[in-house]
């Protein structure tokens, strides 16, 4: 049995979101400052530049983490590689090499709590039930998820256009029923949500944070011809077709 004091019950700590096994806390001020940087810390706090952490209740669900994301854990929590055999290891290594994510994501099981490293980025909790059980993520957003969810490499439809646009050919897809925890430079309050129903969305740049796995994602010329694309000044754009949702950040 364990007790934790002066953590989530600290006056400087605020719970800003909770879903499934995940709770997101935010430090309202940086109290560990010296006189020479106190002014900077004050204005950072005023501009919503604050440290955030994720608290995982492992008794509610086993947790899969991005490698290196764990800070500390208490109680009966055991870490494993999440690898179920040679074939599984090979598959995860291949997926990691093409998506840019860590090949091995540790899995934590038990009935204690797990605390992730603090970050100044924004934490987004996503319920895959709201995404028809399938979501595709932009590079580097994955932080944690319930271990029951499946990961896969999602390939873009056209190799040549993606390569020409300096975009990766693969993204990390997550499938199943459960909660995904993302680390984003943009807060949830500023994300633009677009719902498509047998329609198309074209985006000039990597502004999409996540999109439904049901959408067909390609990189194409903005105009019908090379001359038209050059005249418009846009060149290549990211294109999402079909029925599903896209989350867009207003800035990169």
Would you write up a description of this structure?
This protein is mainly β and 252 residues long. The protein has a domain at 13-188: Double-stranded beta-helix, CATH 3.60.160. The chain is 14% helix and 43% strand. The chain has helices spanning 38-46, 86-99, 159-164, 226-232; strands at residues 13-19, 22-27, 52-57, 63-65, 70-74, 77-80, 107-110, 113-116, 122-127, 134-137, 142-146, 150-155, 170-175, 179-184, 192-203, 208-212, 216-221, 236-248. The strands form three sheets. Strands 10, 12, 13, 15, 16, 17 and 18 form a seven-stranded antiparallel sheet that branches. A hairpin with a 2-residue loop joins strand 1 (13-19) and strand 2 (22-27). Residues 85-99, 159-166 and 226-233 have low confidence and may be disordered.
What's a quick, concise take on this entry?
The protein has 4 helices and 18 strands. With 252 residues, it is mainly beta. The chain is globular.
| Overall geometric form | globular
User: What would the average pLDDT be, to the nearest integer?
Assistant: 85
What name does the CATH topology of the domain at 13-188 carry?
Double-stranded beta-helix
What composes the largest sheet?
7 strands, antiparallel
Count of helices?
Answer: 4
CATH class categorisation of the domain at 13-188: Alpha Beta
Helix content: 10-25%
* Radius of gyration, whole Å: 20 Å
Low-confidence blocks of residues? 85-99, 159-166, 226-233
CATH architecture of the domain at 13-188: 4-Layer Sandwich
| DSSP strand count | 18
């Amino acid at each position: 049995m364990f007790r934790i004091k002066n953590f989530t019950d600290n006056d400087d700590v605020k719970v800003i979101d909770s879903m499934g096994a995940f709770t997101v806390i935010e430090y309202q001020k940086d109290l560990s400052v010296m006189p020479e940087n106190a002014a900077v810390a004050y204005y950072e706090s005023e501009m919503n530049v604050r440290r955030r952490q994720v608290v995982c209740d492992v008794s509610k669900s086993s947790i899969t983490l991005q490698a290196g994301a764990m800070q500390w854990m208490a109680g009966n929590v055991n870490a494993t590689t999440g690898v179920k055999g040679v074939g599984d290891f090979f598959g995860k290594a291949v997926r990691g090499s093409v998506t840019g994510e860590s090949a091995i994501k540790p899995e934590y099981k038990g009935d204690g709590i797990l605390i992730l490293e603090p970050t100044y980025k924004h934490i987004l909790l996503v319920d895959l039930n709201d995404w028809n059980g399938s979501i595709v993520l932009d590079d580097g957003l994955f932080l944690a998820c319930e271990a029951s969810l499946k990961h896969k490499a999602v390939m873009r439809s056209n190799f040549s256009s993606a390569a020409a646009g300096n975009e990766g050919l693969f993204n990390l897809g997550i499938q199943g029923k459960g909660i995904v925890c993302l680390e984003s430079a943009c807060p949830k309050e500023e994300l633009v949500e677009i719902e498509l129903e047998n329609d198309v969305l074209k985006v000039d740049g990597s502004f999409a944070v996540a999109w439904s796995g049901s959408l067909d994602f390609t990189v194409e010329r903005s105009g019908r011809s090379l001359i038209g694309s050059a005249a418009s000044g846009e060149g290549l754009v990211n294109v999402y077709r079909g029925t599903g949702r896209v989350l867009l950040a207003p800035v990169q």
